Amino acid sequence: MAAETPAPAFDLKLHIRRIRAELEARGIWIDDELDESLMEMMRLGREATEAGSSPLGDAGYKGAAVKLHRLVKVREDGSYVPQIANYTWPSLLQKIDEINRSLRQRTRFPPGLYKLVDLANRKAQSEQEFRTYLREIEWHLKMT
Question: Is the dihedral of CA 44, 17, 70, 56 positive or negative?
Answer without folding.
Answer: negative
